[in-house]
Design goal:
Udp-n-acetylmuramoylalanyl-d-glutamate--2,6- Diaminopimelate Ligase, Chain: A, domain 1, 282 residues, binds zinc ion, alpha/beta
Length: 282
């Protein structure tokens, strides 16, 4: 139906709403997770997209997969925010017949921008490990490995529990805080070991083993020899948690932060697991 109106006069119900552009979002993401905090080898920032594009919905996932893309498109999102980069090494072409290039092609065809915040989000505050610490009820204090630019920023977090507990009870709390996975939560050390001081690192935190000083260290992807050597040194117990599940905890507080910053914008967290393991026998 055509509505006759005086030129310049807004039509009832269609008053102009301040629209968010992808550029506005990118500016905020870069402020929250400054790209200069990323490791040299990392590839963060806008992977696909045009800053002038209007955005009314943002989808958040740990990584770009066919399943998370399908979900983001179904949400009618114009931006998919992810933690893991799609490309890390020098890329000279987007090959749509390769699975990686195909993901990029699919995003472009669906009008979906992709933004990556990886090690910059590990080092920033609040960042990935802060969300993990908060989910475990840990009052955090300082990073395990400081960033050169600030003692406040860096990789992993040290913190303390409100009340001491045993290693097995603590591991149960960790399992409860994380989404269910086939890999589950494993601990290493005496089950009744007293736990107060906790170190956590979202993602693969094996490289911090040598410097961790706590009652327990919670991280992902620990390998046999570094883990057993570490235990033999008697310094701390270990809790090994699934990588993607641990990092997914960061997305809900981030979605809330996006909605708070951009009124009217919808931010939703992908409920699908991007854990590669899909079965197990005990
Ligand atoms: Zn990760």
């Amino acid at each position: 139906m055509l509505i006759e109106r005086i030129p310049g006069e807004p039509v009832a119900g269609t008053y102009p709403v301040a629209m968010t552009t992808l550029g506005d979002l990118v500016d905020s993401f870069d402020r929250w997770f400054p790209p200069e905090l990323a490791e040299d080898w990392d590839a963060v920032g806008l992977l696909v997209g045009r800053r002038s594009a209007q955005v009314s919905a943002v989808a958040l996932a740990v990584e770009v997969t066919d399943a998370t893309l399908d979900w983001a498109i179904k949400q009618r999102a114009q931006c998919l925010f992810v933690h893991h980069p799609l490309y890390l090494r020098g890329t000279t072409n987007i090959d749509g017949d390769h699975w990686r290039g195909n993901l990029v092609m699919r995003a472009v065809e669906a009008g979906l921008a992709i933004f990556v915040a990886h090690t910059n989000a590990d080092h920033a505050r609040p960042g990935v490990s802060d969300a993990l610490a908060a989910a475990l009820g840990i009052v955090e204090s300082r990073p395990i490995r400081r960033h050169p630019s600030s003692a406040f920023l860096g990789t992993g977090r040290y913190g303390v529990l409100a009340a001491p507990t045993s290693l097995s009870e603590f591991a149960a709390r960790v399992a409860w805080a994380l989404p269910a996975t086939h890999a589950g939560v494993r601990w290493a050390g005496a089950s009744d070991r007293r736990i107060v001081r906790v170190a956590v690192c979202g993602g693969a935190g094996g490289e911090l083993l040598e410097e961790v000083d706590a009652d327990v260290y919670v991280t992902s992807d620990l390998r046999h020899h570094p883990a057993s050597d570490y235990l033999a040194s008697g310094r701390a117990a270990l809790v090994d948690i699934p990588h993607a599940a641990a990092e997914s905890l960061w997305l809900a507080p981030l979605a809330a932060r996006i909605e708070q910053e951009f009124h009217g914008l919808q931010a939703s967290v992908c409920p699908l697991s991007t854990d590669p393991w899909s079965g197990h026998h005990a």
